[in-house]
Each structure stands twice: as structure tokens, then as C-alpha cells.
Write a structure and sequence with these properties.
alpha/beta; 21 strands; Lyase, Ornithine Decarboxylase, Chain A, domain 1; TIM Barrel; 2 domains; 425 residues; 13 helices; single chain; binds pyridoxal-5'-phosphate; eight-stranded parallel beta barrel
């Protein structure tokens, strides 16, 4: 459910016409809907006990206005770097609602997170446990820790976004979990507070979650018998969203909640979640203009001003995004089949093959749906294309929440080596 709809044949984000934003900021741009972000957060949160902490996974969409919108609803943050820590704090997320995930946290990152007093470190290896204990002990504190265990469950999602199998780099191998908890219990700078699991992203069935969570509950029983205080259970993120109209939708958050309340309801732990895509994915679109159309006899190409550097998901994960025409005043026009491509010099710069769309011409606008998560955050400047703007809509207002940098600003990032300056003289 989102707030991008046609009004009299033209696409709106909440109360704002996409054409109006395109005129004001130019194309391409990302556009996010506040009402959709808030709705997704609240739909996710409402079936759980009041003390449940929803730590929005900042890496899905880290624009500070997006994080701030969610923080005002009460969301915490799941971060994977000190950069994301600073963003979350800048957006108004209190430190005691922040959890820190990731396999490669560096000593300076651990130290800064300790200094600001984050809620929890999700530790992913024995080496990290020692590093964190040393840093905390030196500061005379004990770091609140959950061990991220790897339950060896196949999330049945795309190979590049599955994280809970033994061969994946994430989490503590199942067989080592108990001995690492024993070690954590002995280390001076560690305070065990809970357990953490995250098995992957864009998971579209409940059974991998069920298998993983049942294993974790069993582990909690064993750890408690061994004397550990497990007062929090962090179940990660990963619940999928509908990307393709007409496909069977992934389980509704209410079904997911029923499963969790059934499996962990009796543990008497605080529940923590780290949803990213579910909150932000369908709350954003990418708007792009047609530069040219091109026929090669067999195929029609729609050449857009957006490219793989702006939205890499199709190139990276073979991801599908529904693409719609911003102006669709005559829905009865016969559809035309296009290969939808960007201008970047890579064959992978192809958004969609043989996509049926209304007939389009140069200067027309199209929108990629479900582009709010893992879109702008993965953008780059390949082909010397500046990062594209991000726009946040609220009701009948919109604001550019990240402006388009100038080409001069992009070129100004480089510094000429001094010996090259000399030869130029
Ligand atoms: C990426 C990630 C998430 C968020 O995953 P979604 O599929 O976007 O919900 C949560 N926790 C961890 C540890 C992650 O790496």
C-alpha cells in the first residue's frame, strides 16, 4: 500500500503532481512519501507488545529526512557504520534506540558507538567480541551485546541477499554460539543482553523465518540454563515487499507478526526488529525522462536519463521494478513493448526487457515503483553523472531533501597531483 496514484490521468505523490516536481527539480530524481513511510512503520509495529523496538535499517534509505520522519513515529535505527550512526543521531534517533550490526566494525566505530551510549552491539565474531571488550574495558564500561547467530537456514531469496546459511559471511556459526556466549560472560567489557538473527532480505515466505526463529528460541532456553541473561531477542529485518503487480504478494506484516508472537511470545524478552525494505521500499519512486526512442528493426528501446548508477538493483540482483508512465490520460491506448535502458556505456545498464508500456516519446516522464529502498543509497557517479536529487513529499508540500550537486562540485572532488601541475606550467 502506498501513496503514489493517478489523479485525472497524471501521477501524484500524495497531494503533489510528479510533473510539478519534475519541472522544479529536473530529472531524474527520487521521490519519497511521508505518509507511506509512516504507514509502513505503524502497520509493522502495531501487532507487537508496546515495549517492542523497531530499529529502522538505515542502510535501506539513509536520507536524514527519511530517518527523521520515522524517528518522529518512535522508530529506532539499525546501523552498520559510524557514518550511519551520525546520520541516525543527526536525524533525531536517540542513542538508546540504536543497534549496531555488521561483520566488520572497526575499533574507532566501536569506540564512538560506546561513547554515545547505543542500545546494543550485534556482535558477529569472536575477534569482534575481544575488540569490543578491550575498548569498553579501557573506558571502564561494559558494552551491551547480543550475539548475531547464524541459524543455517536458507532464506530462499536471491543469492546476493541471503545471509543465514553456514557458507555466508554473516553471524556466528551455530555450533560456536554457546562457547562464544560463555566467553562473552567472562570478558570484562561485555554485558550480555540478548541474541540476534537476520537471515536475509526480500524474503517472501514465512517458513524460513519460522525455521530460524524456532532454532533461536531453543538456543535462548539453553543459554538461560547456562546462566546468561537473555532479556532481548532481535529478529532482524528481511520481510519482502511486492515489486511486481500481479505476482502473489509476500506475507502481510500481520501474518509475520502472528508467527512471531506465537513463537517468541512466551520468552518474556523485549523484541527488536530491523526492517529496512519493508518500511522504505514502496515509499519511494524514481522519476526519469525519456531522452530518445530507438527502433532497431527487432526491438524498441526507450532510452532514459536515469541509469544503472542511479538505480543499480536491476543490474545487481536482476531486480524487477514496475515502470509506469507519469501521464496516462488515455489508459485504452494499445501498449507498446520496449527495452528500457539508461545512457551508461554498459550492457548491464538495462532496467527492463520487453516491457509493455503506453506509447512514449522523447521528454515523456516515467516512474519506477518500489524504488525507496536500496535505490539512492547504492547510487554512484559512474560516467561522471552527479548523484540525483531526493525529494520528500508530505501532503501537498514537497521538499528537496538532497539537492543535485553541480558538475563542478563533482569534478572538484578530485585533486591534481602536484607533479602534474608542475608540468602544466
Ligand atoms: C540489511 C539488513 C537489515 C534490513 O534488511 P531488509 O531486508 O531491508 O529488511 C536488517 N538487519 C541487518 C543486519 C541487515 O544487514
Amino acid at each position: 500500500m502506498h501513496h503514489f496514484d493517478y489523479i485525472r490521468g497524471t501521477l501524484y505523490a500524495e497531494g503533489v503532481s510528479i510533473n510539478e516536481i519534475a519541472e522544479a527539480v529536473g530529472t531524474p530524481f527520487y521521490c519519497y512519501s511521508s505518509a507511506t513511510l509512516e504507514r509502513h512503520y505503524n502497520v509493522f509495529k502495531s501487532p507487537f507488545p508496546a515495549d517492542t523496538l523497531i530499529c529502522y535499517s538505515v542502510k535501506a534509505n539513509s536520507n536524514t529526512s527519511v530517518i527523521a520522519t520515522l524517528a518522529r513515529q518512535g522508530a529506532g535505527a539499525d546501523i552498520v557504520s559510524v557514518g550511519e550512526l551520525r546520520r541516525a543521531l543527526a536525524a533525531g534517533v536517540p542513542a538508546d534506540r540504536i543497534v549496531f550490526s555488521g561483520v566488520g566494525k572497526q575499533p574507532e566505530e566501536l569506540a564512538e558507538a560506546l561513547d554515545v551510549g547505543i542500545y546494543q552491539f550485534n556482535v558477529e565474531s569472536e575477534a569482534e567480541l575481544h575488540a569490543l571488550s578491550d575498548i569498553a574495558d579501557e573506558k571502564g564500561v561494559a558494552a551491551p551485546v547480543a550475539l548475531r547467530v547464524n541459524p543455517d537456514v536458507d532464506a530462499k531469496t536471491h543469492a546476493k541477499i541471503t545471509t543465514g546459511r553456514t557458507q555466508d559471511k554473516f553471524g556466528i556459526p551455530w555450533a560456536q554460539a554457546e562457547s562464544l556466549y560463555a566467553l562473552a560472560g567472562r570478558l570484562p567489557g561485555i554485558q550480555i543482553v540478548g541474541i540476534d538473527v537476520h537471515i536475509g532480505s526480500q524474503i517472501t515466505a514465512l517458513d524460513p523465518f519460522e525455521a530460524a526463529f524456532l532454532r533461536v528460541v531453543e538456543m535462548v532456553g539453553r543459554l538461560r540454563k547456562q546462566g546468561h541473561d537473555i532479556s532481548r531477542i532481535d529478529l532482524g529485518g528481511g520481510l519482502g515487499i511486492p515489486y511486481k503487480s500481479g505476482n502473489t504478494p509476500p506475507p502481510h506484516p500481520d501474518e509475520y507478526a502472528a508467527l512471531i508472537n506465537r513463537i517468541v511470545g512466551d520468552l518474556k524478552t523485549q523484541i527488536i526488529f530491523e526492517p529496512g525494505r519493508l518500511i522504505a521500499g514502496n515509499a519511494g519512486i524514481l522519476v526519469s525522462r525519456v531522452i530518445y526512442t530507438k527502433e532497431n528493426g527487432e526491438r524498441s528501446f526507450l532510452i532514459l536519463d536515469a541509469a544503472m548508477n542511479d538505480l543499480i538493483r536491476p543490474a545487481l540482483y536482476d531486480a524487477h521494478h514496475d515502470i509506469i508512465a507519469v501521464d496516462n490520460s488515455d489508459p485504452n491506448l494499445p501498449l507498446h513493448t520496449y527495452d528500457v535502458v539508461g545512457p551508461v556505456c554498459e550492457t548491464a545498464d538495462t532496467f527492463a526487457k520487453e516491457r509493455a508500456l503506453p506509447p512514449l516519446k522523447a521528454r515523456d516522464l516515467v516512474a519506477f515503483l518500489s524504488a525507496g529502498a536500496y535505490g539512492a543509497v547504492q547510487a554512484g557517479t559512474y560516467n561522471t553523472r552527479p548523484l540525483i536529487p531526493e525529494v520528500l513529499v508530505r501532503g501537498d508540500r514537497f521538499s528537496v531533501v538532497r539537492p543535485r550537486p553541480s558538475l563542478d562540485a563533482l569534478l572538484g572532488l578530485d585533486v591534481m597531483a602536484p607533479w602534474l601541475e608542475e608540468t602544466a606550467k
